[in-house]
Amino acid sequence: MSGRVVVIGVGNPLRGDDGVGPATVEALRGLVPDGTVLTVSDGEPARMLDLWRGADTVVVVEVLRAQPARPGKLHTLTAADAASRTARTASTHALGLGECLALAQALGQLPQRLVVHAMEVTDVELGAPLSEAVRSALPELVDRVAASVRQAHGPNHEQ
C-alpha cells in the first residue's frame, strides 16, 4: 500500500502517562519515510477527523486504562478492534477513540487503513512525568509504529 500516511499521537504530555502518544511522535522524527505526517491531538473527534482527512493510512498512538492495569502493556488494534475495545476500557480523554471511530464511520470518513497502537497506563495526573513502566515500553511502541508506517509506504519508498 502507499499514499498519504498520517501518524497521530493522542494525549497530553502534561498529564503523566497520557503523554505517550506525543512522546512517540517526537521519537519517530527521522525514523519514518519522508512524507509521513507526524502530528499530535488531544483526541477530540472532530479534530482527529480533520487530521486524517485525505489519508490512505492512519496510525493512531493512544493510551488505554484497563482494569486491572498493566502499565506498559502494548496493544495493536484494527479500527473495529479499537472501537469495541475502547468501549470497554477508558481513554484518558472525555470522548474516546471509540466515539471518534463511530463518528468517522457515520460520516464516511474512515481512512482506507487505520491501525491503533495503544499502551496501558495508570498515572495521568497533571504535572506527573511518564511512569517508569511506560518509559521502559516506549522504545518497543516506537518500533511498532515505525514498522506500521514503513508497511503503509510500501517496500519501494525511501526514508
TrEMBL record:
Any one biological process term the GO annotation gives: protein processing
CDD domains found in the cross-reference section: H2MP (cd00518)
UniProt keyword list: Aspartyl protease, Hydrolase, Protease
GO MF entry, a single one: aspartic-type endopeptidase activity
UniProt keyword Ligase present: no
Keyword tRNA-binding: no
Domain of life of the organism encoding this protein: Bacteria
Protein family per UniProt: Belongs to the peptidase A31 family.
Name this protein carries in UniProt: Hydrogenase maturation protease
Source organism: Streptomyces chromofuscus
